[in-house]
Amino acid sequence: MNILYYVVHPDLDHSNANRSLLRKLPLHPQLKVIDLYDRYPSFSVNAVAEKELIDWADALFFQHPLYWYSVPALLKQWFEIVLTPGYAYGKEGTALAGKRWQHIISTGGNANAYRSEGYNQYSMEELLRPLESTAGLCRCEWHEPLIHFSAKHARGEQLNAFNDQVVNTLTDLLETR
């Protein structure tokens, strides 16, 4: 399986959890890892280049922090520029149909903060509904996000356990087909 893995963190150098995960990703010819902020520091997303990558891929992963209950600005820009009608959705927009779509998300808050009774007043499932809808519009196969709660304070075993979960997911897919 060809996997396109986007890392989308505006301050990756200061994110221990995201940098740690990035270092653990397997080196494999069927896994392309792209740091969107490194690739497009001026937010000038190249739609043609991105669509070529998507056409190659069987699965799309997006590693990012949860920012204001959503994705970082550059990923939103990427959606706007790349996921166009006639390509990603609409009557003839079938380029992403059947591809796996999954987010790898880091949060500052703990899991209890993401409940109706919690600090953020909504579950993570509710907050991520727009991303699930985007994947659905593009006819992708939505997979539950892997969420690293309290990532800002994660060290040692907690950090390793989450990293292993992501790496195992990718490795299983890379060995598929």
From TrEMBL:
The keyword Amino-acid biosynthesis does not apply. InterPro entries: Flavodoxin_fold (IPR003680), Flavoprotein-like_sf (IPR029039), KefG/KefF (IPR046980). The keyword Methyltransferase does not apply. It comes from the Bacteria. Residues 1-161 form the Flavodoxin-like fold domain. Keywords: Oxidoreductase. It holds the Pfam family Flavodoxin_2. GO terms for molecular function: electron transfer activity; FMN binding; NAD(P)H dehydrogenase (quinone) activity. PANTHER family: GLUTATHIONE-REGULATED POTASSIUM-EFFLUX SYSTEM ANCILLARY PROTEIN KEFG (PTHR47307:SF1). This is Glutathione-regulated potassium-efflux system ancillary protein KefG. It comes from Reinekea marinisedimentorum.
